[in-house]
Amino acid sequence: MKPIQTVGVIGLGALGVLYADQFTRALGKDRVLVLADHDRTERYRREGIWYNGNLCDFQYADAAQVTEPVDLLLFAVKFGGLDAAVETCRHLVGPDTLVLSVLNGFASEEVLGRAYGAEKVIWCVAQKMSAKKEGNRAFCDPTGELAVGLPAGADRAPLERLTAFFDAIGFAYSLPADIRTHMWSKLLCNTGCNQAALVFQCGYGGLQVPGRARDTMTGAMAEVVAVAAAEGVALSQADIDSWVAIIDSFPPDGEPSMRQDGKARRPSEVELFAGTIRRLGARHGVPTPVNDWLYEQIKAMEAAY
Rg (Cα) of the chain, in Å, rounded? Predict the structure, then answer.
């Protein structure tokens, strides 16, 4: 297998900055491209990007001007920008390119697989980090890990190539026994944590104490367990307890991404969370009253922006 030597990162939200920084430190600036269109690239160069208080020394690249495919292409855009990012980077995906998405939910793997070929896409969950971005300044502590895997029956060689690269550069990752179940488990976390923080306008601290925000968070999670069961995915109260323990370990002043979207008056990822659970719940006849309420509240908030 050809070793991974070059990386492209598209999307400079908090996670994009985190991984661009980690890859740049491990590989050197000349082997990591921070990709965007011309205008955004010029803005990055002009204004700079800061990570945990330090100015980043990234190689910003106008994607249209890059001629050679990269070995690893990581998508860290918002879901609403994924289709545009796919087209921006289409010429950067070659025969040996692996593709990773750190987007929430599990829809992005399907989008990327249709665009580039499912055999190139490693399924991925970004987890156990507390990350936020304000303007051009990103903060992350702890930095967490990527859980990676492939669906049952897939050729394991691309995953082995990726993990060999991660091992070589000391990059934190885990290999869940069943990546599909694990992605559902992370959806459980996001559906509860992200949406409750947005609606109740709080950070992790507001979810860590008894009250309506925490009850809403765990109630939304319980509905994910029920819908997952109808989809043939075995989640349980243990998954809820595990994610709540992780959330309880985060800095109280930290904020999940949807709370950051709300403060910036940006459209949220509600369709990936409550939207997904409501649609699947309706298909299977599983009631989802907590997610119905969250969906309605979030849509009303966004309509008022």
Answer: 19
Q: What residue has token string 């990055």?
A: 44
Rounded to whole angstroms, the Cα distance separating 24 from 8 reads: 10
**What amino acid is encoded at 90 in this protein?**
R
Encoded tokens for 65: 């001007």
What are the backbone dihedrals phi and psi of residue 72, each rounded to the nearest 5 degrees, phi first? -135, 125
* Contact residues for 58 (Cβ-Cβ < 8 A; gap 6+): 20, 21, 24, 29, 32, 34, 44, 49
d(CA 9, CA 16): 7
Its sign, for the CA torsion 190, 194, 200, 206, is positive
Distance CA 130, CA 142 (A): 6
d(Cα 248, Cα 244) in Å, to the nearest integer? 6
What residue type is assigned to position 99 of the chain? V
CA–CA separation, 9 and 32 (whole Å): 8
* Mean pLDDT along residues 168-172: 98
Count, residues in the chain: 305
What do you get for the CA distance between the two ends of the chain, in Å? 50
Nearest to 31 by CA among 64, 1, 12, 3: 3
**Residue 107, pLDDT score:** 87
Contacts of 183 (CB under 8 A, 6+ apart): 106, 123, 125
pTM, two decimal places:
0.90
Question: Which residue, chain included where needed, has tokens 């699947």?
Answer: 280
Enter the tokens of residue 155: 């050729």
Give the span between the Cα atoms of 131 and 21, in whole angstroms: 13
Region of 128 (left: φ > 0; alpha: ψ -120 to 50; beta: rest) is left
Structural contact between residues 201 and 262, judged by C-beta atoms closer than 8 angstroms? yes
pLDDT (tens digit per residue) in 33-52: 999 999 999 999 999 999 99
Rounded distance, CA 103 to CA 109, Å? 9
